[in-house]
Design a protein that fits this description.
Layout: H1 3-17, H2 21-60, H3 77-80, E1 85-91, H4 99-107, E2 115-121, H5 127-138, E3 145-149, H6 158-168, E4 174-180, H7 190-200, E5 204-208, E6 210-214, H8 219-222, E7 227-231, H9 232-236, H10 242-247, H11 253-263, E8 267-269, E9 275-279, H12 286-298, H13 306-345, H14 354-391, H15 405-429, E10 431-434, E11 437-442, E12 445-451, H16 479-488
Parallel strand pairs: 1-2, 1-4, 2-3, 5-8, 6-9
Antiparallel strand pairs: 4-7, 5-7, 10-11, 11-12
Helix pairs in contact: 1-13, 2-13, 2-14, 12-15, 13-14, 13-15
């Protein structure tokens, strides 16, 4: 029997196996996952499109500043002078291609109340320190901003340590504190909109938002798909142990704060306008994407209470199951299509193999569900791009042209295939190297921190930010570049990073 005959037999046999009742269940489960995602994205699109309609109605009513407030009366001086003081805390690490632009959008807010910015670095050796000094020199008479050197963390992640130091230095009259990542761009009215929501509903514990990822073109950037505003007194008074839980072994501020909110029945909200452009590095490599994914799964290993541990285990299990449940039908559909093509090329009728015909039907249903899912994602992205353009009329308009939807689909498969692998790796290693620092967990809390500039990455994993000034070399090439090199030298030893 020739190798091709063996391959044909294997494909036809596998296609038959993938038409068994269990396989059909997996197919149907995949359809439901696709459609559930489509419904969720459709609902998110509806909420944001409603915000766009309100802004347009306000503009038709003569309010040319609808991007700041739907009610132009809110912008009267008598109302602006009574706005509460807000402290913006930004923990920084490294400096990359998008940082200067991001920082400019953050400090040029059109919030009418008292506002201060705390940029917090671990040391003056951080490249971000010198870049910020130059930037703030241009705005020294226009904004209240300072750079704070926090020193090295010893009991929690460096990011949390920087955040807590920034909170300690905030103005005594600050009513709200906004923790902002340095890799997103703010809209001129973002701080005002968040503050207005907090003022309207004092029961809100945390307001949070989402990035609108702007892919750079590499597959790694498509595989990556934040901020918190809180009451300042929650930190001053260590309410619910918010400071102590973060400081004493905290690794992820997101997971820790969410656990506190859940334990004490506190409200977490996300206003429709909380969508911020998040430009990704143009040289994002697979190795940096992988470490980012590791970071996303590693947070499930950190916890504060037994209940929090149980919730994280539930998230771990359900996410792993659903991720491979999403990918499995596509792998089976490829087998169905390959078997059908081989039979067709050999001149055999598809009717001769009932399971081949059934397999094509299953693959066709999956294609329909995938089309609905991608259409829903496209619509949500289209609306978010429109919303961001309306909220930042002074900025260069964003465009859907930067999205390659074929890569988006491939990235979804890659991301969901790798997620369980990353999750199990995080579970059994209990350590991760993030931004040049290796964190070790024990019983859900950081137990050990290793720092060495001679080891670990020279660049952060998303923004391509330099961590050690001029010590690092050039960043890794994109994943497509790595694959291209590998394909052209496939007969030679492989040299690309993994």
């Amino acid at each position: 029997m020739s190798p091709f005959d063996s391959l044909d037999a294997f494909l036809i046999y596998s296609s038959g196996v993938f038409c068994s009742p269990l396989a059909i269940f997996i197919h149907i489960q995949g359809y439901l996952i696709c459609l559930t995602l489509a419904v969720g994205w459709a609902f998110a699109a509806y909420v944001r499109s409603r915000e766009i309609r309100q802004m347009k109605d306000s503009m038709k009513g003569g309010n040319s500043f609808a991007f700041l407030s739907h009610d132009i009366n809110d912008l009267e001086h008598s109302n602006q002078v009574n706005l509460p003081r807000v402290t913006v805390v930004m923990p920084l690490k490294g400096f990359g291609e998008h940082n200067l632009h991001n920082w400019r959008t953050q400090i040029t807010s059109l919030y009418g109340g008292p506002l201060e910015f705390h940029f917090v670095v671990e040391s003056t050796d951080d490249p971000a320190y010198h870049a910020l000094n130059r930037l703030l020199a241009d705005f020294k008479d226009d904004v209240d901003a300072k750079i704070i050197v926090a020193g090295l963390s010893t009991t929690c992640s460096q990011k949390i340590h920087n955040q807590l130091i920034g909170v300690e230095r905030m103005h005594k009259d600050s009513k709200y504190v906004l923790f902002l990542d340095d890799d997103v761009r703010l809209h001129p009215g973002s701080i005002g909109a968040l503050t207005a929501e907090m003022e309207k509903n004092p029961e809100i514990f945390i307001q949070t938002g989402y990035p609108l990822d702007l892919p750079s073109g590499s597959l790694g950037s498509y595989c990556i798909y934040e901020y918190h505003m809180m009451h300042a007194d929650d930190f001053r008074n260590n309410r619910h142990g918010v400071v102590s839980d973060l400081r004493d072994g905290g690794y992820s501020d997101d997971m820790t704060l969410a656990a506190i909110a859940g334990a004490h029945k506190r409200l977490i909200t996300s206003p429709p306008v909380a969508v911020f452009p998040h430009p990704l590095a143009s040289d994002l490599s697979f190795s940096r994407y992988w470490n980012y994914l590791r970071k996303q799964t590693f947070v499930l290993e950190s916890y504060t209470t037994k209940v929090n541990w149980i919730m994280n285990r539930a998230l771990f299990s359900s996410h792993c199951y659903l991720s491979w449940g999403f990918v499995a039908p596509y792998l089976m559909a490829v087998v169905h299509l390959a078997a059908a093509l081989r039979i067709y090329s050999l001149g055999d009728s598809l009717g001769d193999s009932a399971h081949i015909s059934r397999g094509l039907t299953l693959a066709g249903c999956l294609a329909i569900c995938t089309f609905i899912e991608l259409l829903s994602m496209w619509n949500l992205t289209r609306i978010e791009v429109q919303l961001c353009n309306m909220l930042s009329p002074e900025a260069l308009p964003l465009s859907l042209a930067s999205y390659n939807w074929c890569l988006v689909f491939i990235a979804m498969l890659v991301d969901n295939f790798l997620y369980p692998i990353s999750a199990f790796r995080s579970h059994f290693s209990q350590s991760i190297n993030w931004s040049g620092i290796r964190y070790h967990l024990k019983d859900g809390k950081i137990s050990k921190i290793d720092r060495s500039k001679d080891k670990g990455p020279k660049y952060t994993d998303l923004g391509g930010k330099r961590l050690y000034g001029k010590r690092g070399g050039h960043p890794n090439s994109s994943i497509f570049g790595s694959w291209s090199t590998n394909l052209t030298q496939w007969r030679q030893p492989r040299k690309f990073d993994v």
